[in-house]
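User: Hey, my collaborator sent me this sequence without any context and asked if I could get a structure. I don't really work with proteins. Can you help?
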Amino acid sequence: MINRVGQVVLAYLAWIISSVLAFYVAFKTWEAVMAVYVALRLNPWSYTAVSNFTIVILVIVGLSVVVYLEHLYSQGATDGRLWRRFAVGTLMEAAIGAVALAVLAFVR
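Assistant: No problem. I've predicted the 3D structure and written it out in structure-token form, which is a compact way to encode the shape of the chain:
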């Protein structure tokens, strides 16, 4: 019983860490999209529309990732594969974040 409770607590801690990382990556992705928009000197009147549309899309994607990771981690806790799944999920988020940061560094 204690071992099962410990696995569930670890799964939710991993989920919280991944959720924070997911929204940080979403914010950096939005920042990169807007930096590219400015660098390309597109229509300044549509800047707000592109910004708002990008935010809506990234929030939907971010929430989908958070829900999927909760399922993935709770299944990993019961299967004994929590750390492997946490590593894969975190590396995928980190890779997307690295691309967003690279775009930001390149554009600015």
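In plain terms: The CA atoms of residues 41 and 105 lie 18 Å apart. You can pass these tokens on to your collaborator as they are.
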